[in-house]
Amino acid sequence: MPIVPDEKDWTWVLTRPCPECSFDASTVTPSTVPGSIENMLPRWRAVLRRPDAVERPDDHTWSPLEYACHVRDVFSLFDQRLNLMLDSDDARFQDWDQDRTAIEKDYAGADPAVVSAELTAEGKQAAESFAGVREAEWGRKGLRSNGSEFTVLTLAQYFLHDVVHHLHDVNG
């Protein structure tokens, strides 16, 4: 059964803590981003080792496996967006239809062991990319097609919230 798409604009997490997962973007600094990513990887691998990782808790919620597939793709997407922002002045990137991606990539039918390895590799790549950002680059700008403007720092904050929030969703 398809999940009802989440059409909320989550950029509000850049200005106030998330009441669901307690993520506070104001605590994210350039020096904390790579370590935050690395510290979440073992927790995601543990989630994917659970016997019930493939089971949806209800008809309206992704399974832990589907959330992990999403996070794997978030790592890849935000690594691409980061590099675009570093390489292009006033970079522009399209909105991402995460729900269409979940169907097209068959998140529900994925192999948890394969996803674990892919998520780890993509997470390490994203951490490495954020670790390579020079101090002068954290203010570089990018614009999402819906008009949301990001700096490299706010992109990192927004991205980290997604990964933290989904760990909360799966009790990771």
UniProtKB/TrEMBL annotation:
InterPro entries: DinB-like, DinB/YfiT-like
Boundaries of every DinB-like domain copy: 54-168
Domain of life (superkingdom): Bacteria
Protein name, entry field: DinB-like domain-containing protein
SUPFAM superfamilies: DinB/YfiT-like putative metalloenzymes
